[in-house]
Amino acid sequence: MPSFYDYFKENMEGLGLPAPASLFGSVQAAVANASIILSQIDKFGKTVTIGELIGAGTRLEGLGIIAACSAAFYVGAVIGSIAVATGRSFAGETSLSDVLRISRRYNLSRPWLLGDLRR
Fold first, then answer.
1. Integer Cα distance of 113 and 78 in angstroms
2. What is the distance in angstroms between the CA of the first residue and the CA of the last residue of the chain?
3. Which residues lie closer than 8 Å to 117 by C-beta, 6 or more apart?
4. Is residue 110 assigned to a domain?
5. Residue 76: how many CB atoms within 10 A of its CB?
6. Is the pTM of this model over 0.85?
7. pLDDT tens-digit map of 71-107
8. Looking at 5-50, which runs of residues are DSSP E strands?
9. Does the pLDDT at position 5 exceed 70?
10. What's the structural domain count of the chain?
11. Whether pLDDT at 18 is above 90
12. Which of 23, 33, 70, 118 is the least buried, fewest Cβ under 10 Å from its Cβ?
């Protein structure tokens, strides 16, 4: 039976994005690292890149391959993938409303998130 990480990685790879097990190997790790990225976006603004976050010492070096990627874009994909992986692990399906509900449950929701997820 596939694990949370199997589903998470599959979803992220489907989006063309890396999902290192060292950062996202469990629900707890994925939520913790999404929270770190969100806190840095809150601090530096939506235009901050993954590379800038790595330079700020966030221990996200595993994402160096996408250093030029917008952190807001990446964390939106992470939050969506957390919801998809959680939904598939427990129920088998996930909708956008599930993504938003789960993002609120883990305190990962931001005012700009819905717009980014709809893209």
1. 11
2. 31
3. 76, 79, 80, 96, 99, 100
4. yes
5. 26
6. no
7. 999 999 999 999 989 888 776 566 667 777 888 888 8
8. none
9. yes
10. 1
11. yes
12. 118
Q: Measured between alpha carbons, how far is residue 48 from residues 25, 58, 100, 107 in Å?
A: 24, 13, 23, 20
pLDDT above 90 as % of the chain: 61
Q: For residue 59, give its domain range.
A: 4-11+24-118
**How many CA atoms are closer than 13 Å to the CA of 98, on its beta-carbon side?**
15
Biggest CA–CA distance in the chain, Å, is: 40
As to burial, measured by CB atoms within 10 angstroms (0-12 exposed, 13-18 middle, 19+ buried), residue 54 is middle
Q: Is residue 44 part of a domain?
A: yes
Is the CB of residue 108 less than 8 Å from the CB of residue 34?
A: yes
Backbone phi, then psi, for 49, in 5-degree steps? -100, 165
The answer to whether residue 36 is domain-embedded is yes
Q: What span, in angstroms and rounded, lies between the C-alpha atoms of 93 and 58?
A: 32
Considering the domain boundaries, does residue 18 fall inside one? no
Give one DSSP letter per residue of 56-69, joined into a string.
TT-S-GGGGGGTTS
Q: Among candidates 96, 62, 31, 11, which has minimal Cα distance to 3? A: 11
